[in-house]
Structures are given as C-alpha cells and as structure tokens.
Amino acid sequence: MSSRLVEGSEVVADAMVRAGCRFFAGYPMTPFTEVLEHMASALPEVGGVCINAESELEAVGMVWGAAAAGTRAATGSTGQGLSLMQESIAEASLAGIGFVVLNMARGQGDYFQATRGGGHGDYRTPVLAPWGPAEVGDLVADAFDLADEWRNPVVVIGDYYLAHTWVDLDMSSEVATPRPSPAWALDGSSGGTGAAKLVSPLGTTKQRDGVGYDLAAHYAGCAERREQMTAGIAPRAELTHTDDAEVVLVAYGTMARYADAVVTALRAEGERVGLVRPITLWPFPEDIVAGAAEGSNVVAVYENNAGQMIDDVRISVGKSVPIVGLNGFQTDSSAFGIAPDVTVENLTASVRELLAGAKA
Amino acid sequence: MEREILFTGIGGQGIQLAARTLAEAAIADGRRVQLFASYGGMMRGGNSDSFLVIGDTEVTAPPVLGSAWASVVMHHEHAGDVWPKLRPDGIAAINDSVVEPTCRPAASVALLEVSALDIATELGAPVAASLVLIGALVAATEVVAADALLDSAARVLPSYRSEAAVVNRKALEAGLAAAQLTHPAWETSNA
Question: The domain that contains A313 carries what CATH number?
Fold first, then answer.
C-alpha cells in the first residue's frame, strides 16, 4: 500500500480519470476550482482533454458534444454554476446523452437542484452523495457507469468540506482503459449514407418526413426510458444502529459524518440512536428510510440548508412517525457553506432533547 | 486513539503548509490522518485555520472539530475560537513573538510558548515561523517522530517552491531544539 496525503478535490479528479473520463470542461468557482485544476493536470497525461471554458454554459455544451461523440465526459461547478447548466442537462437527458456532473456545493442548499433539477421537461438525474474522500472513487465510477447505462446525466454532489479535506489514501491503482465508444455515438462515419446517426433532444430519427420530428413519440420514449431508469437503479443507504433506535437521524454527505460521530458517542452511553445515510439521493432510498423509521419515536433530518431532504423523508415515512428538521444553520462569512453551528456538540444536545421527549 | 490539532493564524503565516507538513510526517510514521483546511478569500490577513486528526486507524471524524488535544496558534486574531475547544489536559503551542500576552487558553492547558517568528527571522526566513512552532510541538509531544517531520519538509512543497526545502528543514530543526518532551502524545506500548 502506498498512501499519500491527498485533497478531496484531487481524489474526485483522480477517480474520474480512473473511471475512463477523457474530456472535462468547467469554469472555476470555489470549492470546485481545485477539481478543475487537478483535471487540467491529470487529463493530458492520459491523452484526455481538459478545457477551462469561458463560462459554465460553454463547459456543459462542450461536454454534451464530447459525450455525444462517445467519450466519457464530465463537467461540474458549485450550485451557482450548475444553475447556468440546467438547460443543457435537461436537453442532454432528453437527447439520451450521458455524462457526469459534479456539484461541489456550498453547504447543502442544492439538494432540490440536484434531485429535482432546474431544467425543463420531464426528466430525472440520478444523484450520488459521497460522505468523504474515501468513498469518492467507487461512487464516481458508479456515476459514469450509470450515465452510460441509462444515457442520462448523473450528478455527484459534494461540498466545501469534501473538496478541502485531505486524507491519506492509496492512489496507486491502475488507470482503466477507456471503454469503447458506444454504437450510437456520433463518429462522422455515416454522413451521406442515408443512415446518418442523429443524437438530439428532439429525437433520434425524423419519424415523419416532410413534417420533421415526432415529438410526441420521442417524449413517450423518454418517459419510458425514465421509468426504466427509476426502476433499474437500486437506491442505496447506509444504516447505523437503526434496529432498535428511538431516534433515527437521516443525513447525507458531510452532515452524516457529524451524525455518525454523535450516534457512536451516544450509543456508548446506551442511548438508542441510529442513522440512515442516503447514498443515492435520487432515486431516494424510500424503503430503507421507511424501514429504519419503523418502530422509532421520532425521525430527525439533519441537513445544512433550510430543510430540503426532509421532503423526501416525509414521502418515505408518511405520518406514521413524527419527523423533525434539524436545519437552518447560519453559514459563516466566507459564503462557502461552512456552518459554525454544525458541531458534534450541538447535534448531541439536539438529539438528547429528542431522546428526552421520546422517553417522556 | 486519535490526536486532534487545531491550527490558527492569518493568511501568509504558513498555517496550511505547517498542517500539511505535520500530516505528511504522521503518514510516514504509519498513522492515518484527516486534515481540513479553512481559509478566507484573502491571501494575506484573512483567517487561515486547519483541523488535523492523527489516528491509529482510519479517521472518520467530522472535518471540523469541537474538541481538540493540541493547538498551534500563530496569531491572536482568530485564537478566541480555539481556546474553548482545547481539552483541559491539552497543550497549546503559541507563537509568542506575535500572539498577544493576554491571549492564552484556560489555566489547565499546558503552554508551549516559542518565539517562533524571532527564531525563523534569525534563520533568514520569517515565513517559516509556523514550521518552527510545529517543530517545538513535536519536541514537546512526539506526536510524530522528529525524523519523519524533517523528511516531510521537502515532500510537501510543490516543485516551484522546492528551493525553500532547505530553510524549511532548518526551521523545523530549530523548533525541535526549542522544547523538551513534556507532554507525550501517545501511550507507549511497553509502559
């Protein structure tokens, strides 16, 4: 084992290169900037291309093009930059073009943006949420596989903490050979043959000569593909001490690190506290959350926003168990989503109150 | 077992380099680490903090710590946030060339006051003061082996800063010479 000190941003970039990503475009914005820097350094070494685009609009457009030509490709930003990309993400989904979109978010205010999307049309994007650098490699690889399998953009959501946390990791494993270009990808070889390939949000064939695209048929096809994707992706979550828990915490990403520390400490005191950590935010692990909530006295959703994932927890659990939100934290003046009140001590105090209420 | 070390100072004092140097040394010692860096938008003068955890096994702690064993305080500006987090049996390494005399932790915390900036200035490299201070912390605690610390001086530098490795190593050596073992970080296995 050859471990070295490595920053979360570099782990993300390294994972993309290992997964066969050979085109990356983005525009700098904290805390995404370091990912872009690492990609600019790493991709040319493996024959790939990284472009610092003029803006996020161009970045996602370039990635759309690279992916349509069959290359594993990715872009990213913070939530602010991803707001600018929503039109293209939606159109790519309707066009059946898969790529990976990183959201190195500021806090967790982009949960709705990631899981609902801000673009137009009837689309969905799978969302994976690592809780630390050590989990990034596997989830980034999964994201590219999902993007390929479902020909759909896939979001990997992190935050400032993930980007700027350094750990010792073994970075010596082999870089995979990129997978072959899929048969549907545009390669310029079929032009003029009468059977040219077409990849477009309006459809892949001009079904009705003289009229143009048959959007009704295309959108029906998109809806069918979305339904298959929804059913075909297994929702994932990690359970910690939920079997007999009186208080069940639900938290994802960095916030789950705090929740996990609190659960470990309170369990050592004999308190019945558990944690559900959603790893796929879409599809949301509804059954896993509902199962963990069953038999508990209260479900508490701990998130660094004003309360977003709590909606999915409500959908999952219904009204059988009370659900409370532990959220609404003030962030510091950096605007990077660092919340001084997000501490093990504060969460411990909140959970103790819930435990006291549960016993009352 | 884990040892948590909070670093605080202002941009330009080398906080991030010092934290990374100590983290690299801990890895060389065979330990696991987690280091979270937090700094404002300003290159100089803004807050610069680091949260380092050194453990015997994989570190799963949250990135920001509410409780710590040690602190490395290069400047008083943001030290007020650090003192309440230090455990009563902890140790505070303080750059007393700069940190105001009134800026000190609770009485139970061991003090390691080192004129780090003066020592680094004598070496001709005032920017290496933070390395003097972690050298002293290592001497006082053996939280990492002295050799591992010295060897990490060159490894943490990017190629375009490699010429600083020699003076940085001297700063670490000066720090190591500035304190005695008083506060062992780890329980010795043959105790």
Answer: 3.40.50.920
Peptide bond into A283 cis (omega under 30): yes
Q: What is the rounded CA–CA span in Å between residue B6 and residue B70?
A: 6
Within the 78-137 window of chain A, which residues sit less than 8 Å (CB to CB) from chain B?
Answer: 132, 134
Residue with tokens 């605007």: A335
- Residue A160: closest C-alpha in chain B: B38
pLDDT number for residue A135: 95
Burial class of residue B75, CB neighbours in 10 A (0-12, 13-18, 19+): buried
Does the beta-carbon distance from B36 to A161 stay under 8 Å? yes
A257 vs B24: CB contact, 8 Å cut-off? no
Q: A142 and A276: one domain? A: no
SS3 call for B100: coil
Is A28's pLDDT higher than 70? yes
Which ranges of chain B does DSSP label H, i.e. alpha helix?
Answer: 15-28, 116-122, 129-141, 146-155, 165-176
> Please, what is the average pLDDT of chain A?
93
Q: Is the Cβ–Cβ distance between B72 and B133 less than 8 Å? A: yes
A133 and A279 housed in the same domain: no
Q: Do B34 and A342 touch (CB under 8 A)?
A: no
Q: What is the pLDDT of residue B42?
A: 58
Give a yes or no: residue A176 inside a domain: no
CATH 3.40.920.10 fits B2-176, yes or no: yes
- What number of other Cβ atoms are within 10 A of residue A354's Cβ? 21
Query: Looking at the 3D structure of chain A, how many domains does it have?
Result: 2
Residue A23 maps to which CATH number? Answer: 3.40.50.970
Name the more confident of B41 and A302: A302
Give mean pLDDT in consecutive 10-residue pieces for chain B, a chain of 191 residues.
96 94 97 90 77 94 92 95 93 97 94 98 97 98 97 92 94 98 83 40
Give B187 to chain A, closest Cα distance, Å: 22
Residues of A in contact with B67 (CB under 8 A): 344-345
**Mean pLDDT in residue range A249-266:** 97
Q: What is the pLDDT of residues A113-156, one digit of tens each?
A: 999 988 998 999 999 999 999 999 999 999 999 999 999 999 99
Residues 3-32 of A with CB under 8 A from B: 3-5
d(CA B41, CA A29): 12
Whole-number pLDDT of residue B21: 97
Task: Describe the strand order of the beta sheet including B68-73 as a list of residue ranges.
Answer: A3-7, A165-170, B32-39, B47-55, B2-10, B68-73, B86-95, B110-114
Domain identity same for A141 and A250? no
What residues does each domain of chain B span? Answer: 2-176
Partner-chain contact B37 A5, CB within 8 Å? no
User: Which residues on chain B place their C-beta less than 8 Å from a C-beta of chain A?
Assistant: 20, 23-24, 27, 32-38, 40-41, 58-64, 66-67, 156
Q: How far is B78 from chain A (nearest CA, A)?
A: 14
Which pLDDT score is estimated for B44?
67
Q: Which amino acid is at A164?
A: H
Q: Which domain holds residue A30?
A: 3-170
Nearest-CB residue to A3 (from B27, B37, B60)? B27
